[in-house]
Amino acid sequence: MMLIGSGHPSLGAAFVMRGRGVSQITGGFASAQQVLPTDPQGTMTLTLTNLVVGSRYRVEDATTGALVADGTAAAATVPLAIEYYLPSKTVRIKVRKGTAAPKYQPFDTQAVIGSLGQSIFVAQVADPIA
Amino acid sequence: MAIQDDFTLNYATKKISHTSGATRYTVNALYSWLMDLFDDAGQMDDTVPISAQTPTEYTLINGWEFNADADVGYLYGGSIVVQKATTDRDVWANFYTLGTVEADVVMYFQQNAALVASHPGYATGHIDQLVKVVSAGADVDSRNVTVFARNNAAANADLYDNFTSTASATGGRNPVPIATSPDTNDDGSGSAVVGVTVNFNNPMADVDGDSTAESYTVTVDGGGNSTLQAYRYLKYLTRRQNTGAVGTSNATEGRFYRYANSGYAEAKQAPFGTYAGGKFFGARGVLLTNVSDPNNRVLIDNSGATKTPPVSITVNITGVAVGDRVLVARSTGSGSVLVNKSQFTLNGAHTSGMSTVVVNEAVGNDIPSTGVLRVSDTRYTYTALNRGSKTFTISGTLGAGFAGATPAYVPLIDDVAAGTSIASPAMTFVADIDVVYRVRKKGILPFENSAAVGSTGLSASAIRTTDTIAV
After folding, report:
1. What is the rounded distance in angstroms from the CA atom of residue B145 to the CA atom of residue B190?
2. Residue to substitute from B25, B31, B35, interface A, most A β-carbons within 10 A
3. Model-level pTM?
4. Which residue of A17, B230, B254, B339 has the smallest Cβ count within 10 Å?
5. Predicted ipTM?
């Protein structure tokens, strides 16, 4: 049998299937691993490319502003292992470099992350004014 | 101190405040500091507060704004747009003066007929500050800001200047050219001049004596003072410190007064009129009256026409004695000692008993309004003159008849001396007059000489040489 979005009576909450496929009934007992919607479904790789080395980046939940990942770029490409959720989640990606020369204008973009890996091209613009 | 020591950010309310220090910073310094600060790990979760459009034009964004207008006083060198909402925004334009000015000059801003406070710490010299030209989305005074420089102190009065600059919709950095220098005609004593009044009463006056009154906007009654004293008073009236009304029927503060009408050209160095070469050159629409030296006026009426008062001159013969017969009359030419007796000709026959004499020739302004008229050598005095009809009204009547075209002339002096000098009636200078002057009396040798009467009149001395032969 397939369990699709069935609830667990004792928890009183909706569950979703982790993964896809047919649940196997063994010995008259059906088992499936179920998780809450707020639980991550797994890990995907969000890759920031074309970063200026030394830039500070922050990936945050676009809705809540909660931190997802941050750091300082040590190379032009920064792979980030990020937990993904179902349904998909929108994240905001900020990249700034305003302290040490050369300085760049703040860069902001958004991405919708799911189970598949994503590459985000960061197009930083030099800031000759600061 | 660095800018981060003097400015404070409130991340919750998104307000930028100046909280300490007296140092002023460029807007670029503010921007650079904020760009530096907001790439820190602790600020990556906050929105960036500012963006740069050019090195001198910036915008506070993402809801950030200044806590108070006074905070902006500590910034210079660039403009800032505070974008509070789509249409709700303030624009702080940057104005800075440049040019050759006196070291002690004090600049001040005027917007919407009111003073804009100078930035903290400003005392003298050139100024560079931000002025709000758009408030809550609405232009303030059409984004115009006027900078004035009007120093007027005892023994230290300058030629004034002002300039109006219009900021762009994005503010911008706007140069304001200002030039001041010592005023060699103003010793700063204008405060001591009494009796001068200013009234914006749209007067009419015939300044140039052409029998047609011109229209003016403001009457400056000199109160009997000289034009120079009036000039000094008018500059004192428009000095930087005068917050009072500039005159009757005009509430403009003296320090902001610029012209009688906004459509007239400004006399920036002295708003009511300048002074040069011993003459007062009135600004357009300014009627200066009741001064002790009215000839030292050059005025401009409302229409823009220059009006110069007629120059009143007299001829004075000195070195005479009581009883001397003196004649000063037009000669037949330069250097001539012959009297031009044909200055006029009678218009038609004149019969005995007539009280008027009409001539054919034009009677110019250099013919006195009263004086002596010689008709074929017969002396009459006239008490009135109608230049239009070329008619002399004589005292009494003609004692004889004269044919038409009989020659006649008006001597400048034709009288007996009552003292050691004798003067002509006042007349208007039109052009140089070649004259012959004679002094005669039994007992002295007849004296005559030629001269030219110029724009300053004539003063000549007779030489009385005793006639030892006549008995």
Report:
1. 28
2. B35
3. 0.76
4. A17
5. 0.75
